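Hi everyone,

Forwarding the result from last night's run.
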Amino acid sequence: MHVGVAYADKFKQTWLKLDVPDGSTAREAIERSGLLDQFPEIDLAENKVGIFGRLIKLETRLSDGDRVEIYRPITADPETVERRDQGETAETE
């Protein structure tokens, strides 16, 4: 079956398409993708994983066409980070 595995660090986004045997888990797809070697900072015990934005467990069985996403840990607490003014626009007359 065809699946994708995606990961993005601060500088680069990587999305690999690969074939995995029917019944493969998210962990197996990640391991087959080679991303663990390419990005040694990925720790599957720490990084959360999802399919199309929904969190899953590493043992979740994949379906054809799934995109497994490896998420980086949040490095800033959204409760304490100063918000940027989203409504500020330049007005012209």
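The helical segments are 26-33, 35-38.

Cheers,
N.
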